[in-house]
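$ fold --in a.seq
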Amino acid sequence: MRPRLLPSALLMLLLVVAGCTADDGLPADAGDGTDQPIGTASDLPEIEAPDGVLVYSGADPDDGTPTGDLVVALPDGTELYRAEGRDTPAFAVASGFPDRAWVVAETEDGLVDVGLLDATAFGVRSLGLPPAAWQIPTPGTARSNGRFAALLAPGDAVALVDLGGGSALLLDVVASPEVASLSPDGSALLVAGPQGGALVDTADPTRVLPLDDARPIEWLDNGTQLLVEGPPGVGTLTLADGSISSTGVADVLGAVASSTDVVLIDVDGQLAVTDLSGATPTVIADTVGAPLVVDPAGVAVVMPTAAGLSWIPLDGGDPVVVGPPDMQPIAWPGPAGPSVAWFAVPGGRGTPVVGVDLSTGQSVNVTAGEEQSWAMLDPTSLDLSADWRTGLVVFRNGQQADLVYMGLDRPPSVVASGPEVTGSLSPDATLVVSSRGDDGTTVIGVGGPAGSMLVQVGVGIGPTWVPVGS
């Protein structure tokens, strides 16, 4: 869950969370790139927390003013660690890697400082990166793949982060980077901008392969190849030796990263599927909509059509309308991500959130309910389980906000309500940690999807659930 702090924050999934001054930045412990606990050493023993731990920013119990403390607690409310001494808050954001959470804080000039928290060895480390408009990657997207993640400040900077080792490297490989995508196997990072692209070896970032005039399209064969376009046409680049082989396709719209030759093309304004040889294409839709969300497993795509947002099988089967035609993705998977995507109407009031199983076409349509029929979705609030099948989202209507628990496999329910309610899911998606107003303060509590608070953890804001262990 992302706290609502920066009015100018970049939305569209890879979202920024904020909250401190430049003079009160994150600690700058030196990184050694090993698997040892990162950050400040602690005499406390490592803990066992099969349900994960909670990380939140502390607040004054009397008036709810943020204290600048960063708190780690067990789901039963036991406080494990409290980092004190800050004047303004930093916030934790789940990284998708066990024990690690991003720690983000706003500088005086509105940029973002990024660090890492080891949630069980109790240490916060600065990554040594300059403050920038960093976008924090959501686990399962193209910029987050297991141990490695890519931080992107569009048009300004890109950094490769080793979450396990607790280190980061600012990359100077492409001018004005706009795209960063990890290969499905995590072995390479693609960086691209208006003036070209490059491939970076994640194990040895000094190994860089410039793409020159080749425009990257999509990974192929689980990352051993990259589909590119440039003089004299569309080709496949083999990462092992840098060679490019020509293909028989043109007007390429996308591809299935897990396959060797499933390619999506535009045939006279129709969406079609072919292979790298350019075999007779199979038309699967009468129009070409955008954006096109491709199932990482290669079963189907989802795109807007005249009939509505449609799930379209790649084998030519019948499409299924799953939502209104003006919906846009607010969470879509990377090449190694889960086969689930979530959609919403930007700025729409009374419009639903739609979740789609990209491999089966199963979908769920979630609204704020009859009493909040004109509520507006807050896309920055979306928090998803590891498999993306379950999530939390906030609907806002004036000063009223409802935190809604939703999923492809369970009915929606309101978990908490209040002006600044936020929340985060446990690793197994069966429990919710939420913050909600209580007599002028904001209380962190743990409860079930029905909305009852089972445990009051403490006073604070911006709670995040962090998985522990492998």
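$ fold --in b.seq
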Amino acid sequence: MGVTQGPAVTTNRADFAFHYAITNAPQNKNFPEFLSLIRLGLVPRVEFEAHSGPQRAYVPNPDLVKEHDRITDAILLEDPDAAEQAMKTHLEGSLGHYRVLLRGTQR
């Protein structure tokens, strides 16, 4: 896969920084260590999308932005049940999106 350029790089860094901050919230050193270890194996969604058709301007996915907002709000409200549910929804949705994108690149 090629090197991602422009806004995608900034977005990718911001997305990783968000996820890294979330892994620090429970004050369990295993979460951020795990994320740091697997970081190189993570493939940004924009790279999959770049290979699935004509190149287009990067536009943040509004559903992902809402998911991140729900996670952040739950943490700020110190509501562990809401935070857990928001994370579960986010992870399940992301897994589904990646499955679709991967199927599209395997043709």
